[in-house]
Amino acid sequence: NNSLLKKRVQSLRFLDSSFIMRRKPGIGAIHKQKLEQEKYKDKGTEIQENQFEQMTKQMEIFRTNLEDFATKHKTEIKKNGQFRRQFTEMCASIGVDPLASGKGFWSVLGIGDFYYELAVQIVEVCMATNYKNGGLITLDELRERLVQARGKRKEHQDITNEDLLAAAKKLRIFGN
């Protein structure tokens, strides 16, 4: 009985020690892990492409809606300086620059043209007053002179200081 008990204890120790010693991962396990990583990477790329496609569609829909809004409110944008400022601020906050593009619906609306025309008129006023002030003029005086030159009829747009600054920025393409 005693010898049988010793044999059982020895066999239990052997089994116990064999469970403690684990085998290191082999080449097959490494290949399996690599395949799993590639699957995750492929799935991540697929998800990223789907998200990009959805975002592109949403931006196209948004651009169309913005065009519709601008077309619908064209006269208000052109006539009302405060509304025009709010519209351009909204566009700028979402990364759309209505003044940067000379083509597309911005030019159809005449929004870009308004600032280019205003820039030319700013240069004309500065050149006309050059003999008095060296071409330097305050925004308020410039605005007053432009309103006088353009007339106060209803078909002329209101001019704000923000409009003058935006138009003056258009002149940067000519240098300092």
TrEMBL record:
It comes from the Eukaryota. GO terms for cellular component: ESCRT II complex. InterPro entries: ESCRT-2_cplx_Snf8 (IPR016689), Snf8/Vps36 (IPR040608), WH-like_DNA-bd_sf (IPR036388), WH_DNA-bd_sf (IPR036390). It holds the Pfam family EAP30. GO terms for biological process: protein transport to vacuole involved in ubiquitin-dependent protein catabolic process via the multivesicular body sorting pathway. Belongs to the SNF8 family. This is Vacuolar-sorting protein SNF8.
